Amino acid sequence: MNRISPSRSSKRIVGLRMPEDLKTAIAFHGHLCPGLVIGYLAARLGLKRLVARRSQDEELIAIVENKSCAVDAVQVLTGCTFGKGNLFFRDFGKMVFTFAVRPSGRAIRVSLFSHAGSKPRRSGHERQEESREQRIRRMLSMKPEELFRVSETRIRLPRPASIHDSVLWEQCAEMVMATRQRRASGKVLCIPCSKNTRRRRGTAQVERCR
């Protein structure tokens, strides 16, 4: 894989030695944060349990149920991306990651425990919230089983990515995937233009998507 130069943010936590793949994820994401660490650890765990390597094509897929910082680490470590067609987003708002291999459909589902991402610490009789740095240190020091609920299963794999023709839409004159065409007022339109279609005085008026 092409290397991404680690950013200065990878060296901000004094005394914390970070693996090179975490530094690469930091450089891709732009900074080090607890969310990125969660995705990093989840992806490492998934790859380890599947005995899989970083995806070169679509032999590995990832299904993420959130759009947080964690997903950037998943992309870097697994090689699953929207561009390759092997990263799938399910908008459930959950820190859950499923990794699967083709063609078997064997999968590992990794779910963050509720207490793992944000855990208070006690100092004497006072209850204090962890700092950002403390959370990162704690998560990196924990065993995977302490952070995540892990289950092995088999899933119905999404279809491999396919390439569709692009066509020139009549209204906005932009190239759009043919499978995303809509018809409105007798015209072939892209989705934004079709949504902007409206009628005025009995005549169909179409607004450009731009």
Protein described:
By secondary structure, this protein is α+β, with helices and mostly antiparallel strands. The protein has 2 domains: 8-154, 60s Ribosomal Protein L30, Chain: A; 166-205, no CATH class. It has helices spanning 20-29, 34-50, 70-78, 132-141, 144-147, 191-195, and strands at residues 60-64, 87-89, 96-101, 106-112, 121-123, 126-128, 148-154, 166-168, 175-177, 182-184, 187-189, 198-200, 203-205. Strand 1, helix 3 and strand 2 form a beta-alpha-beta unit.
Fill in the keyword field for this structure.
60s Ribosomal Protein L30, Chain: A, alpha+beta, 210 residues, 13 strands, 25% strand, two-stranded antiparallel sheet, 5-stranded mixed beta sheet
